[in-house]
Amino acid sequence: MASKLTKKSMQNEPDRNPDPITDAPGAHPVGVGIGAAAGGAAAGAAAGAVAGPAGVVVGAAIGAIAGGYAGKAAAEAIDPTAESAYWRENYSKRPYYDPEADYEDYEPAYRYGWESRQRYPEQRFEDVESDLEAGWEEVQPTSQLGWPKARHATRDAWERIDQSAWQKSETPGQASHKPR
């Protein structure tokens, strides 16, 4: 039986990112959900094309499970606690920093950047920027930043994820290329 999540356990292990239901470490509900939705849609469409309407239902269920695992794997590459701590420490050192804004204004833009990088793993920031701008209005209620200012923080977090992923995958002696 899973232990109950307590404030004390969170203080003792703040970076374990526990599952809210099972208290298991390494929960990434956003990544799992995104993966499940994408996998389910793709599998459902493929099955539906072959097996008709019943195949869509079965394909969506199987695809959601497989997609959920894929989404969890992608999400595990990003530790929201570590990202938030990094940006809290460094936001005021960035070239776009405005002394009139505090971390709480920038934080939604950073979060939006690292979460968006997961949603668009094979695309460049420039390719999805118009979608990100449109989506910013939905996620920015806690920020005083409009898109022109939030854009810089969002892109900064996006590129930090790219750089982190690149550094993890690069092996000694391998030719270096710039990540997408």
Features:
single chain; 180 residues; 66% helix
TL;DR of this structure?
This protein is an all-alpha fold.
Give the biggest beta sheet: none
SSE pattern, N- to C-terminal: HHHHHHH
Subunit arrangement of the protein: single chain
In round numbers, the mean pLDDT is 71
Strand content: under 5%
Tally the structural domains.
2
What is the CA-atom radius of gyration, in angstroms? 19 Å
The end-to-end span amounts to: 43 Å
Number of strands: 0
Low-confidence runs of at least 5 consecutive residues: 1-14, 66-75, 171-180
- Determine the structural class based on helices, strands and strand pairing: mainly alpha
Shape: globular
How helix-rich are the residues, as a percent range? 55-70%
Q: How many DSSP H or I helices?
A: 7
